[in-house]
Amino acid sequence: MNILFDDEKKIFKIDTEHTSYVIAVTDEEGFLGHVYYGTKISDMDVNYLLRTEENPFVPSKNNRDRSSFLDTFPMEYPGNGVGDYRESAIAVKDGNGHSAVMPLYRSYNITPGKAKIPGLPAAFAKEGECLSLEIVLYDEVLSLEVTLVYTIYAGSDVMTRSTKVTNRSKQEITLTKVMSASIDMDAEDYEMLSLHGSWARERQIEQRPIGYGKQSVGSTRGESSHQEHPFVALVSKGATQESGRVYGMHFVYSGNFLAQVEKNQFDSLRMMMGIHPQDFAWKLGENETFYAPEAVLVYSDQGLGAMTRNLHDFYRNHMIRSPYKNKKRPILINNWEATYFDFDTEKLIAIAKEAKKCGIEMLVMDDGWFGHRNDDNTSLGDWQVNENKIKGGLKHLVDEVNRIGLAFGIWFEPEMISPDSNLYQKHSDWAIALPNRTPCRSRNQYVLDLSRKEVRDYVYEAVASVLRSANIAYVKWDMNRQLTDLGSNFLDADHQGELMHRYVLGVYELQERLITEFPELLLENCSGGGARFDPGMLYYSPQIWCSDDTDAIERLKIQEGTALIYPLSTMGAHVSDCPNHTVGRVTPFETRGNVALAGTFGYELDITKIPEEDRNMIPKQTAMYHKYNDLVREGDYYRIASYSSNHEYDCYEVVSKDKKEALVTFVQVLNRPNCHSRRIRLQGLDEKVRYQIEGIEGSFYGDTLMHAGVKIPNMWGDFQSVLLHLKEAEN
Q1: Could you give the C-alpha distances from 49 to 11, 181, 187, in angstroms and in order?
Q2: Of 94, 367, 449, 478, which is the active-site residue?
Q3: Structure pTM?
Q4: Which of 94, 184, 366, 548 is labelled catalytic?
Q5: Rounded to an integer, what distance in angstroms lies between the CA atom of residue 154 and that of residue 16?
Q6: 478 part of the active site
Q7: Domain count, the chain
């Protein structure tokens, strides 16, 4: 990795292991131009790609057509309202009510290491593992300083970008848009890849042609959302897992976002990522700074698979901080689908005893243990144990579960408040709401105003006091509704536009406090399933509940989209009962276990009531988890076949870093009549290593398995699955 600056030609060149990123400053006014991003190149002076010698020329030579220049020049961080009609990266409202801003180059600084972003999650690195470039831009009219931060990491082809904006004037300035990253490039033959969804079907892969104008994904729901994901990629037409060009951009943020690709009249593309400008307005006083969240950029010239593995390694090495990052997670059983709200101490103890016999390691008590909550209409905010259910108190229950031999975990929804709660009776003004409007509730609950310190302090103490009272090893932090009625009783009229971002900052503060006081706690984030599955959450929790849909076949699609950009170790995945509680499908217990293995692995069922045949399979599955989890958690992921695309079968593979071991998961979703076995070509093996496939006689070289393939026998019935375990053959 290296960052160079040619002072004479004013060119920056950022080199990762296999990519180059080139930026240049024009001689005249100091426009910062994006020159190149792609496969690593040797030359630094590639300024000809800026096309400044072509009509309409730079303004110093043709200022009569200044707007033509501004509307075509490949800006590194485009301003607003001064002649570039494409989407701006920044916009303001100054003291005159004007929105124009044009930051121009002023200075730079190259430093080892990386500064933290105050209040926000961001990638980190050990000493000597990263290098940062800061480019300072300045708007002379507004006295507004914009600093672009670029960081590269040893052994990685990922680059992170962030932006900070400082008001150097004596007058207040309101920021109405601050993107974290923007790139201009030629359109060529790219398509746009994004991840869409809904509750119970998150992160479905969609790839579509890029038309003229703007195409975007985004959220204005106060969180990253089920519906769209803070990720977008430009993919060359015809690209596969193993070939083609891919530009990925991912947002390290858990609130509103905009990810946009714009194709203009001159066949150039502008790709950008940042906080969604809708409902956003941030006031800056003299010398105050706004810090925008970080964006993760990755380029691959070897298809989607290389992008995936780059991101997996990056998040494992530079985003997840938990002590569980490199450890097996306990196999847990959650009582939600087993009991819903209908449980007591006796029922939980019965589940724990049966779970222990089967090799399960933790019992998690889900919703319904507090206040007078027997359904989802009450008690959020009243985080006191309901001893009518939990007889003898929480510590008694936890001690009993520990005595059985299981660790104990608990569910919270700390960000919410029910109208039917003691907290609401005392502090109705703590809810986010609009005066004189009919409240827009979801699940009959409000969202707490986490922009207020007293609210954050109450929430933290409510959670922490429970954790201090008993030996609790795991917390599932849920958020079951999104934000509406954006009104704060705390913020004045001039600062209401700050509510959504301050809310997210409040969530981050709470979780940072939690893992600081309880450093050994296993924290799992959740939001109605996977509505807040984003890189920002990984900074606080090593795993996130992937989806409330635990059906094994639906999970194939959900987990494929998730694994496109996230390590398998981050995906909360459980075996549940059938008929499945979301879609009603019945799938073999073995297949449910094999699919859940590509995640954290656990159970979501009443183990005391499931068929004996299924219960007898659990010890085999828990043993399988212990056998394969190091490989699944740490290995390289390869997507071989996609049920979403072929509608018949799914196949993926994990290969150890030393290429001596691999695990292949094959799921036959729909059987076909009168057909033979399938041939699957593996990936990622060492061509010269001989591999033994467990249960199959003989051994095979890696090149044979990758080019000639391996045979998957035809299986009887739908929803069948098989695991192939490969290890380097003994001599």
Answers
A1: 12, 20, 14
A2: 478
A3: 0.97
A4: 548
A5: 8
A6: yes
A7: 3
